[in-house]
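Exam revision sheet. Question 4 asks you to relate a sequence to its structure. Input first:
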Amino acid sequence: MDRASFDRLFDMTDRTVIVTGGTRGIGLALAEGFVLAGARVVVASRKPDACEEAAQHLRGLGGQAVGVPTHLGEVGDLEALVQRAVDEFGGIDVVVNNAANALAQPLGEMSVDAWTKSYEVNLRGPVFLVQAALPHLKASPHAAVLNMVSVGAFNFAPSLSIYASGKAALMSFTRSMAAEFVPHGIRVNALAPGPVDTDMMRKNPQQAIDAMIGGTLMKRLATPDEMVGAALLLTSDAGSYITGTVIIADGGGTPR
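Answer key, structure tokens:
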């Protein structure tokens, strides 16, 4: 390897990346990482104001970015998101499925409405977004999909069974997509964060947060920025031989 090829490993210059749930928490940290690596970034979330604010922030970092208000539960919104990305930047190279809702309902008290809402956003949305973007991913010489799952996909998940099962299903789709898309040169992987210091995490009772921290070897929450390295590895040329797998970034808690 020479200096030029080394420097290209994590370089995302001239690549267009869609990041759902990209206006705060892990999604915004990933969007910042992609912009700083040279990518053009399309951030999507439900709130138009948050989208515009995030896009302005990313442009302030010196990158090209737009915000597109998108409800992951609305399939029409997903097609509009893809179209806007293509109109704005000419194609799509990477899709990062980060948006999720963490509806918590104990077994025995589940509502059909919560079940439907959770699966529409956490599973159907990511799968149909990839499907909408597929023609553009096929046309890219550097195509990658990153599905953000959770250690909940592998662990016991009392009260969070709807969320955890959706993430486990997205992990299964990750493997199937990797196998189906490999002839088109599209790599598909997942990243499973453990407990991260985000708005979603702070909505939990302190006791639950303490229990999650206690379940890690490092005995602390991650910062959202600590997910950027793994995400860049899985979506850049540095990960060119990695597909159909998951990186667990959980401070040492899941495999025992």
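Marking note for examiners. The chain has a mean pLDDT of 95.
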